[in-house]
């Protein structure tokens, strides 16, 4: 197995923060991490002179490369180290085209610059920002077999997903003179002799890439001192002040996208503050559910808010009045009032919203790569392309027709004003009766929909490790509840008087100064979000802390790793055994989890995949932390420098306070049992 890192930065470009490259730091990185091959991949630039210096000073295989801004994503392009001058000249073309961090080149430009892409190793940002898009990836797929990810979690996902590219993980490190620690993101490949073609061969087979040298994808290196962890569940054991939390903090500081639940962080110390924070959490969840549940209703409210029925009634009144007056003033008719344009109605412009939605829908079908085969089985892609072209032509025609109508309307309006100034006859007011009738019907429908929305309904009921999460919709019962929803010092008394008449209520809301128009929909129905215990009652103070822990652990799935420091310090053993352990085990199937503990309920009952033991030593008045690790089934745990310690002793001393105490407790339990 060879350890490689094909993503290293040695030049500060417009895409980087300023840093000064240090060749000695690069040498130390390669030697300390025992790397066999690296690639120099700076943003949109290749420095041949610097590359030669690096090659001369390092005893490992060094490949020339460049990280290219391609179609708003990033692509690593790596060459063999033979035709360096040719590669350098081609990279200068990229450098000339990309002058700002927002610039990028197209696929065609990439092909024009580098010619035969099969000569190179192409690695796109795959599950790593800025990602190469699906469309770009599909156009280059014949030259690509591996994609870069940025965490063991994503690496394992791609390994297990048959449709994903072969995953690779690299440091993406800036080798600067003040760097204190190095990333542990490297990839092992099953290769005897390193060459560009050999690496490309390995990248075609998921069985030939791994996170660790001997344990495949079960383990990965987490610290630059050589400490490895399981991609599943890890437990860190040790006596008090032995370096457990210190080790956990180091893991947190050197890892990206990591959820860290610190010791005592969820323990209730101030009941009032804890209750306020819990209510804030409920409010956030409530707001999220409100937005999701009332999404369609919001669109209705926004549409109705634009209707001014009073203005429509005034317009109808003016129209009827002018119509009657015009009819009774026949004797005043003159040359100007008899002109056809004097009473001409304006053209109504077509609404193009639906046509625009159709175009976007067809484009979505064309550009979709995930279900392309299924879509094309029913609708050939050529037919979709012809359809979208015809729809776009139709859109252009309708837009042009609207512009003509607008131009004619402006002209007619101008002529009518001129005629009206020259006659004593009454002009019949312009009116759009169809729109007015439609507005009235919309209000009727809005009233019906609002009444349905106000009906009490259970929206959500979910069980979560002994707790029940319940969300329901209810009518507002007073102005105070409306005020609470707004979160502002605003009076709602007048508005609430019209709560049962939805349109009048909406008009009252519009009249309230300082109320956000985009949130009118929230005042029609109240969403109540509750956390209940297993007995169906609202949670107590201690139960709030328990729920918060479960929620924090659940939220960890948004991250790439979860760290928990001594959960037993804040919670009882039954809760840990029955609820927390089960949830942690489930999450460890998706992301690496590290738990620090000295409690047997967590340490032993949770059945970890890997064990780490920390021990404090004082050497020449200097505190040092010795770290041992191994599988739970190993007889001996091994330190990073080769020392061993009995796994049996570690477990008993850390979790049971030693074998004698363990036996004593066992005897006491037997007495109680009898």
Automatic annotation (TrEMBL):
- The name of this protein is Histidinol-phosphatase
Q: Which InterPro entries match?
A: P-loop_NTPase (IPR027417), Pol/His_phosphatase_N (IPR003141), Pol/histidinol_Pase-like (IPR016195)
Top-level division of the source organism's lineage: Bacteria
SMART domains (UniProt xref)? POLIIIAc
Q: Which organism is it from?
A: Desulforamulus aquiferis
The Polymerase/histidinol phosphatase N-terminal domain covers which part of the protein? 4-72
Signal peptide interval: none
């Amino acid at each position: 197995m060879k350890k490689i890192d094909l993503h290293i930065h040695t030049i500060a470009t417009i895409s980087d923060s300023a840093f000064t490259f240090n060749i000695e730091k690069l040498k130390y990185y390669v030697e300390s991490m025992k790397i066999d091959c690296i690639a120099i991949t700076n943003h949109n630039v290749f420095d041949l002179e610097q590359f030669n210096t690096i090659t001369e000073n390092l005893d490992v295989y060094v490949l020339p490369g460049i990280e290219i801004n391609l179609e708003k994503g990033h692509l690593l392009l790596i060459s063999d180290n033979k035709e360096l001058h040719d590669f350098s000249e081609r990279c200068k073309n990229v450098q000339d085209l990309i002058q700002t961090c927002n610039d990028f080149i197209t696929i065609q430009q990439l092909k024009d610059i580098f010619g035969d892409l099969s000569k190179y190793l192409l690695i796109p940002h795959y599950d790593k920002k800025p990602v190469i898009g699906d469309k770009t990836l599909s156009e280059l797929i014949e030259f690509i077999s591996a994609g870069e990810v940025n965490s063991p979690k994503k690496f394992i996902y791609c390994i297990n997903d048959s449709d994903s590219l072969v995953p690779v993980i690299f440091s993406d490190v800036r080798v600067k003179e003040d760097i204190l620690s190095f990333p542990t993101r490297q990839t092992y490949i099953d290769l005897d002799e390193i060459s560009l073609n050999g690496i490309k061969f390995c990248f075609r087979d998921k069985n030939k890439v791994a996170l660790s040298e001997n344990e495949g994808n079960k383990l990965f290196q987490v610290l630059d001192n050589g400490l490895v962890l399981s991609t599943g569940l890890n437990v860190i054991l040790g006596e008090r002040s032995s370096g457990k939390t210190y080790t956990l903090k180091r893991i947190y500081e050197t890892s990206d996208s990591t959820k860290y639940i610190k010791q005592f962080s969820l323990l209730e110390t101030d009941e009032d503050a804890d209750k306020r924070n819990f209510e804030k959490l409920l409010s956030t969840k409530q707001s999220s559910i409100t937005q999701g549940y009332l999404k369609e209703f919001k669109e209705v409210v926004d549409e109705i808010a634009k209707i001014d029925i009073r203005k429509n009634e005034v317009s109808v009144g003016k129209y009827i009045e002018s119509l009657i007056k015009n009819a009774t003033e026949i004797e005043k008719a003159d040359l100007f009032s008899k002109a056809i344009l004097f009473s001409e109605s304006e053209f109504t412009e077509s609404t193009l919203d639906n046509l625009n939605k159709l175009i976007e829908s067809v484009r979505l079908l064309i550009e979709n790569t995930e279900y392309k085969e299924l879509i094309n089985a029913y609708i050939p892609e050529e037919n979709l392309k012809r359809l979208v072209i015809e729809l776009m032509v139709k859109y252009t025609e309708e837009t042009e027709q609207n512009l003509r109508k607008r131009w004619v309307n402006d002209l007619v309006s101008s002529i009518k004003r001129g005629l009206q100034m020259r006659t004593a006859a009454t002009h019949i007011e312009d009116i759009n009766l169809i729109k007015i009738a439609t507005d009235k019907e919309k209000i009727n429908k809005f009233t019906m929909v609002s009444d349905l929305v106000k009906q009490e309904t259970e929206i959500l009921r979910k069980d979560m490790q002994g707790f029940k999460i319940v969300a329901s919709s209810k009518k507002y019962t007073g102005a105070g509840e409306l005020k609470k929803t707004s979160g502002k010092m605003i009076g709602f008394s007048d508005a609430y008087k019209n709560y049962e008449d939805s349109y009048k209520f909406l008009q009252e809301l519009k009249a309230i100064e300082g109320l956000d128009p985009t949130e009118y929909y929230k005042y029609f129905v109240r969403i109540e979000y509750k956390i209940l215990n297993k007995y169906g009652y609202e949670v107590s103070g201690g139960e709030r802390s328990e729920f918060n822990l479960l929620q924090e652990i659940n939220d960890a799935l948004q991250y790439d790793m979860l760290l928990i420091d001594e959960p037993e310090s804040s919670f009882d053993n039954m809760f840990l055994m029955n609820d927390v352990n089960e949830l942690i085990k489930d999450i460890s199937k998706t992301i690496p989890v590290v738990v620090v503990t000295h409690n047997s309920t967590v340490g032993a009952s949770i059945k970890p995949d890997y064990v780490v033991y920390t021990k404090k030593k004082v050497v020449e008045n200097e505190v040092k932390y010795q770290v041992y690790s191994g599988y739970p089934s190993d007889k001996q745990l091994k330190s990073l420098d080769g020392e061993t310690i009995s796994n049996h002793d570690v477990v008993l001393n850390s979790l049971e306070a030693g074998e004698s105490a363990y036996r004593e407790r066992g005897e006491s339990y037997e007495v109680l049992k009898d």
